From TrEMBL:
InterPro entries per the UniProt record, alphabetical: Acyl-CoA-binding_protein, Acyl-CoA-binding_sf, FERM/acyl-CoA-bd_prot_sf
One Pfam family here: ACBP
Segments forming domain ACB: 43-107
Top-level taxon in the UniProt lineage: Eukaryota
Source species of the chain: Orbilia oligospora
Name the UniProt record assigns to this protein: ACB domain-containing protein
GO molecular function list: fatty-acyl-CoA binding
Amino acid sequence: MPPRRPSTSTPTQTPKNPFTLAVTSANSLLTPKIESNPDPLQSIRDSTSLYGFYMQATIGDYRPPFPSASNSSNQKPDIYERTAWLKWMSHKGMSKTEAQKLYVEMVGRLMVEYRVEDGVREDVGA
């Protein structure tokens, strides 16, 4: 785990929830920053795992129908959509608190694995 940075919050500021910070970090992992790097996360497995933990952490055990042509706007669900749904379903019964904890841990691991600092990958263009 990378060393912690000094807190920039003042006594009047409330530090952000670790889950909220992890969501912000995950968004930078999932958002392309440079045209030559169209898939910053580089892994359907990682992004669908994040999706599964996020949905369990925010919605819980709600179970939407399996993605199919009849309930998909593009008429043909892709492998990502189905895999993301299955990842979420695999967390049935997990508390929202536990899902948040696992999401935060996974984002931290991915930030190190993909060498991301402040939302910018250090290996892009290397």
